[in-house]
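Attaching the record inline, Q. Sequence:
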Amino acid sequence: MRKIDLTGQKFGRLTVINQAEHYISPQGVKVIRWNCVCECGNHTVVSANQLRRGKTVSCGCYHKEQEDNRAFLQSKDIAGQQFGTLTAIRVVGGNERGRALWECKCTCGATVIKDGAGLRCGNIKSCGDRRKHASKHCGCVKGRKERLYQVFDCMKDRCYNQNSQGYKNYGGRGIKICAEWLSNYGAFREWAYANGYKEEVLPNGVNKWTIERIDVNGDYEPDNCTWITTQKQQFNKRDNVVLTYKGKTMTATEWAHELKLSPSVVWARIKHGWSVEETLSTPKLKSRYDRKKAVSG
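Structure, as predicted:
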């Protein structure tokens, strides 16, 4: 049989360079083989029979791409979705189990490759760098949480925790937190300090500064939020009670500060049927049983 020279010929992604050493099978059959270079740059040795019949068309990269494509077609599209501190960007391939691998961006700035199935079921929630997340996401300062993180945590609670006391006025009304802040305390913290937040505490231990939405029907986002004092926010409450006492009209909160009473005490008295005069003229009592004594005296 006349020898066929395959040098320079192309088969799929493979280009034949020269003839390789023959292979002798266990049965004593001589197999003619050729050295080839793949389009991806890898070199491989392939038998003439495999090349001419089209059974081998690459160094193996084509088969891997097909596997990756199958994983892509079988995967759910989660691009743009957030999973803990990770945001899925795009599919970059598949693993040995046929699952799609997603390139993800972490709020700490890291870019990682994660299993899509692991993201969806909640097993994967971060890039895995605990040291970075301890400082950037948890608000830890020498083992303690920053007061600002408490504001951040309460904001998420009333927007997304249906068991929260304030949920009906926030998450229940469709109020959300922007994606920039939702899973990124670091971004929220940076915005807060650049827009007026200060680590100041009232005598009762409550944060002096609180976050306020400019449009009460809008979401928590940089353009719709500002920082005001806790006292001013109480004055702005939609459900504040207006009281007239000794010819002067103010909100219940303003009266509480005027008379050095706790706003919660004033509201509780009104809620339980106290008159305006009784509510504002009675000093803070040690127990509810002192009420009758204080009024009669």
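Residues 293-297 have pLDDT under 50 and may be disordered. The two ends are 126 Å apart (CA to CA).

More tomorrow.
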